[in-house]
Amino acid sequence: MSTDRALKKRAQFAVVYESGTTNLDKYLVVRTLANNLQYSRFGYSVNKKLGKAVVRNHIKRLLKEIARSLPVSEGLDIVFIARSNSARATYIELEHSVKRLLKNVNALKINNEKTCARVN
Question: pTM of the prediction?
Answer without folding.
Answer: 0.85
